[in-house]
Amino acid sequence: MIADMLPPRSKSSDAAGETGYRTKAEWAYLQVRGWIQSGILEPEERLDQEELAARLGISRIPLRQALVKLQSDGLIVSRPHAGATVAPLSLTDAEDIYAARAVLEPMLTEAAAATMGEEAIGELRQIVARQETAGEAGDRLLFLDLDREFHERLYHGAGYRISLDLVNRLRDLSERYVALYQGDAQRSQATLSEHDEILGHCAARDGAAAAAAMRDHIRHGIEYLRKRAGAPGSDISE
């Protein structure tokens, strides 16, 4: 049941009203999107609106508005007489997303490595250390947040605003896939080692090596997903 997996119930007055500018529908959208992207809500899981509304502490009207937006994002699917379910993970989509990432992210890594100073590298190493601590504590959500922060902070140093915007959009699309393989302890440990390797090349100002390491990092992710899916074109099981 949804209620068994989700974080504790929040008061809608605090959650939606605290920031002042978010409606309950907007807040619900962000919450449910986060649960889907992190894997708390699993692929093809049925979404019980009554349970979700109770967990979020809101009525079903703003929740339905949030679900409509999530459907337009491709994160949920709705079928007549069957209700809404979390969208399946498609290997075809993953191949598409990761092919684009493999072009843009090494480019940004190489550009960032050329100008990255010791302070920036130190900050990135701290993120990796915090990520390792989160992994040891079994805090999957924090591990994923820090993984994204590592990549965003690294690419920010490249100075390519449009490419960075594109990468952030690709990261939104790939978040569910990243959550899937980062839930594997062996793959999570490999991620930390690969982050360290990338930073080592950045510290040496070896942009080409840093780009190659990033390319390998992305390739390892899609290779894991291929193994999970089995046959080409198949959905990826949780």
From TrEMBL:
The keyword Transmembrane does not apply. One of its GO terms (molecular function) is DNA-binding transcription factor activity. Pfam families: FCD, GntR. The keyword Cell membrane does not apply. InterPro entries: GntR_C (IPR011711), TF_FadR/GntR_C (IPR008920), Tscrpt_reg_HTH_GntR (IPR000524), WH-like_DNA-bd_sf (IPR036388), WH_DNA-bd_sf (IPR036390). Keywords: DNA-binding, Transcription, Transcription regulation. Residues 22-89 form the HTH gntR-type domain. PANTHER family: GLUCONATE OPERON TRANSCRIPTIONAL REPRESSOR, TRANSCRIPTIONAL REGULATOR, GNTR FAMILY. This is GntR family transcriptional regulator.
